[in-house]
Design a protein that fits this description.
6-stranded mixed β-barrel, alpha+beta, globular, 8-stranded mixed sheet
Length: 866
């Protein structure tokens, strides 16, 4: 009976190689033949493994170099790697810094990819969670939400769904000490937390019935609001907050997992009380539900479609032509532009790491050439290629680990800086956690393999004895071609990143440089909400709003003050369905929609709108409207034909019948990549409580303190919101887009820097290797200019090949970016010329010093040295 083959193979690897190992193995086999027990043999295998793997000074057979055990050899490799780093501190520091910057930047990019792809929605068992989207068959709305009465019908009639819940975002005043501040709130029906599988981290969520009229007011605090306003105190449960006119009891603190997307902006959660008698055509509720056990998605989708068809028959005016779609909750995240940006971040990570590892690979090859004599001596003394490769990988791993330790704080600081630069909730959710640390760990293990591939091939090509006889690294002529190929790859990848980022930046500039349709350079904007806690009577609220306006008009340097329901572009509400001349649309009719803005009569003039036909209404007018040019042409037959037409607008529970008396120029869309929406301007309703003030003055920024004093004099309990020049608010709205594009540009800039250092290294090495050649040429009569041309020619070849390959790749990727380019051609001449010019300047800079050194070579010294 022979010993178990696997145990025998393991023993051969663990025991000392040589006579002593053979003797131990022979003794074990003799004992096994006397007592043939596989269990005994495995037991001896484990005992010997523990002994020789943990021993730091096992017996050594000097006749064979690999006789000290696996663990000792690994530790020896790492010690040798550290000694190598100490012997060349400058080169090691440069490699560590290069990798640290690349890994840190890649980690920041991965934070975005992680947030979009890996973290997902904070939903338990996403395969069972679905959402209902309403689609207008005539194309006015493709991802619409549901209305309150429709939601109640779905709850009552569905047999395939459970935990059916709705939510929406809103605003509400928080009253403290008689002063108010406006909160961003999420209003949710009682089943929402159960539907999403989320429970508050402390306390509880909403109980059944707490979303009904007359229930005791309760509130759940968002985690970040709890941290900022209550310093994370656990004793807040049971306390009360006055939100509006009611005192709400704090019953829970939401988990930070629920701070995602638009929901992440919410500071508190309030019960959503759905009115069964509310309007069915106000679709502002997001519906979430869970499939019942044993119910497939297809069954539930068919049932919801049938319920939607029934409702269209029962309520033709509001539901005719609307289809109900049931979609998995994960499918409603983002849009085409969102996924293009995520893909760009993923692409940037890959290209940046490829450029960095190519750069480091060049540096490692230079270090190996400097150590050629050492490697040749070790080869001559019997070191095998595998042993040298393992030493090379160990040195790479030591450099990579040092780089990762430096990259983690770099990435953390970058994410904090991004969060500080943009107040949007999505950027506040960026942080370095276990996902990012795992990503860094993976890069730490992959990078040494990537940047040692080329040096490994170098070890296998030349005969080290010939290298030794040649006097070092000059025998390795193939390495020059390999290093040049690596630099060409770096240049090409940098050009790809640079082309894509410049195109994206140019597109963004075109989008936000396009006319908005308004002249806001002389406007100071701010918001006031005259809530029902301080002003129970609507007439008193309107009176306070008018008094505040009058006080502002009396302020020095103020030319006019106008009111609007929301700032155009920045505070627009969702489009609403219009009824033209009281016509009820049929199932095949296009449903006209428009953005509705309420305003005082002079708002159009203050915003710089152009009257195309008709006139604005007078102070105190009602039942009239002014429409935008797009609304007139799309819905009312044209600019001239629109005057006198009747339109019906539903706002909340109120239906407004309006006669068109004027047509004005368009105002840009909130989504600046889309065309201007149809817009209806109408007088402010008597019951309005929230207003945006437009203060016209020559220097908006200098008037903020005067505005605060005027508001405090008339409405001291009301908080002033977003008090800024209108242009500053527009710039802030664009800042997040510019921040994302700026990150891509930062990746491209780092790639160009790495590529330029790689080019500098290759040219410098070439000049040093050809010193004798240049000396001989100059001794035979070549001028310094001819030598410089030889150096420049090599750089030019690298530049041209890298540019051609990089531009082809960049243009190809840009052609897939679609709407992100906003009509900009991937072959945009300005972009291509900018990239070519920048790379030419970088190449000239990287070549200048080596070329100057080549021109200063003394022929006699060069020949004597040779």
């Amino acid at each position: 009976m022979t010993p178990p083959r696997l145990a025998d193979a393991i023993l051969r690897r663990v025991l000392p190689i040589g006579k002593r190992g053979d003797s131990i193995l022979g003794d074990l086999r003799e004992e096994f033949r006397a007592n043939p027990s596989a269990l005994w043999y495995w037991r001896q295998r484990w005992l010997l493994s523990i002994r020789y793997l943990t021993s730091r000074s096992p017996y050594q057979d000097l006749t064979y170099p690999r006789s000290r055990g696996m663990w000792f050899e690994l530790s020896s490799d790492l010690k040798a790697a550290l000694r190598s780093m100490r012997r060349a501190p400058a080169a090691s520091a440069l490699i560590v810094l290069t990798l640290a910057l690349a890994i840190g930047a890649a980690t920041v990019g991965f934070v975005f990819v992680d947030l979009a792809l890996l973290r997902g929605l904070p939903v338990d068992d996403t395969s069972r969670v679905v959402s209902v989207l309403m689609t207008d068959t005539n194309g006015s709305e493709g991802r619409g939400h549901v209305s309150g009465p429709d939601f109640l019908d779905y709850v009552a009639r569905s047999t395939t769904l459970e935990r059916i819940a709705v939510m929406r975002n809103g605003r509400a005043p928080l009253i403290r000490g008689g002063q108010s501040m406006t909160l961003t709130v999420a209003l949710a029906s009682a089943e929402l937390f159960e539907a999403m599988g989320q429970r508050p981290m402390q306390g509880r969520g909403f109980l059944p019935g707490e979303d009904a009229a007359g229930a005791t007011p309760v509130v759940v605090l968002a985690h970040r609001f709890w941290q900022s306003e209550f310093n994370g105190r656990p004793d807040v449960i049971g306390q009360t907050l006055q939100i509006g006119r009611e005192h709400h009891t704090i019953v829970g603190i939401m988990s930070p997992d629920m701070e995602f997307g638009n929901i992440g902006e919410a500071e508190v959660w309030l019960p959503l009380r759905v009115d069964p008698a509310g309007p069915r055509d106000v679709r502002n509720l997001r519906l979430v539900a869970r499939l019942k056990d044993g119910v497939s998605h297809e069954q539930a989708a068919a049932e919801m479609a049938a319920i939607g068809a029934t409702l269209s028959i029962e309520h033709p005016r509001t539901n005719n032509g609307w289809l109900v779609r049931l979609v998995p909750v994960n499918d409603i995240v983002g849009g085409d532009e969102f996924w293009v940006v995520v893909a760009l971040f993923a692409l940037s990570i890959g290209l940046l790491m490829a450029i960095a590892t190519a750069n480091v690979s060049n540096m490692v090859m230079v270090r190996m050439l400097a150590r050629a004599r050492e490697l040749a001596v070790r080869t001559a003394l019997g070191a095998r290629k595998g042993r040298l490769v393992r030493q090379l990988v160990a040195e790479g791993l030591a450099l990579s680990v040092a780089s990762a330790l430096l990259a983690i704080p770099v990435a953390w600081a970058a994410t904090r800086a991004i969060a500080a630069l943009s107040p949007e909730a999505v950027f506040q959710q960026l942080h370095v956690d276990v996902h990012e640390l795992t990503f860094v760990a993976v890069l730490t293990l992959i990078c040494p393999v990537m940047f040692t591939l080329a040096p490994m091939r170098m070890l296998g090509r030349p005969d080290m004895r010939q290298v030794l006889a040649a006097g070092g690294g000059r025998g390795m002529t193939a390495t020059s071609r390999g290093r040049t190929a690596l630099v060409i790859m770096q240049v090409a990848l940098a050009v790809v990143l640079l082309t894509v980022s410049v195109l994206s930046l140019r597109s963004m500039q075109r989008i936000y440089a396009a006319p908005t349709g308004m002249d806001t350079s002389r406007l100071l904007a701010f918001g006031l909400e005259f809530n029902d806690a301080q002003y129970p009577d609507a007439a008193a609220a309107r009176s306070a709003a008018d008094a505040t306006r009058s006080a502002l008009q009396r302020t020095s340097a103020v030319e006019s003050v106008e009111l609007v329901s929301g700032l155009p572009i920045l505070g627009d509400s969702a489009p609403v369905v219009l009824s033209i001349d009281r016509h009820v649309p049929g199932p095949d009719d296009v449903r006209p929609t428009a953005v509705v803005t309420s305003a005082t009569p002079g708002a159009g003039r203050a915003l710089g709108l152009t009257m195309l036909s008709g006139t604005w209404w007078m102070e105190g007018a009602s039942g009239v409207a002014v429409v935008s040019e797009t609304a007139a042409r799309r819905h009312l037959g044209g600019v001239d034909q629109a005057i006198g037409r009747m339109i019906s607008v539903t706002q909340g529970t109120s239906l407004h019948e309006l006669r068109v008396i004027g047509v004005v120029s368009d105002v840009a869309n909130t989504n600046r990549t889309q065309a201007a929406p149809p817009r209806v301007w109408m007088p402010i309703a008597p019951g309005a409580r929230r207003f945006a003030y437009l203060v016209e003055t020559t220097d908006p920024a200098a008037l903020t303190s005067n505005v605060r004093r005027a508001v405090a004099g008339e409405a001291p309990a009301i908080a002033v919101e977003y008090l800024q020049p209108f242009d500053s608010l527009l710039a802030d709205a664009a800042s997040s887009d510019y921040l994302v594009i700026g990150m891509l540009a930062g990746f491209a800039g780092l790639a160009v820097i790495l590529a330029s250092t790689g080019l500098f290294g290759v040219v410098s090495y070439t000049v040093a290797r050809r010193t004798a050649e240049f000396g001989t040429r100059m001794a035979l009569g070549a001028s310094a200019g001819e030598v410089v041309r030889l150096v420049v020619r090599e750089s030019a070849v690298i530049l041209v090949v890298g540019l051609v390959a990089g531009l082809a790749g960049g243009v190809g990727i840009a052609s897939l970016m679609g709407s992100v380019l906003a009509g900009l051609s991937p072959l945009d001449p300005l972009t291509i010329s900018s990239v070519v010019t920048l790379l030419c300047l970088v190449t000239i800079t990287a070549t200048a010093l080596p070329a100057w050194r080549a021109s200063r070579i003394d022929p006699l010294i060069a020949l004597r040295t040779e």
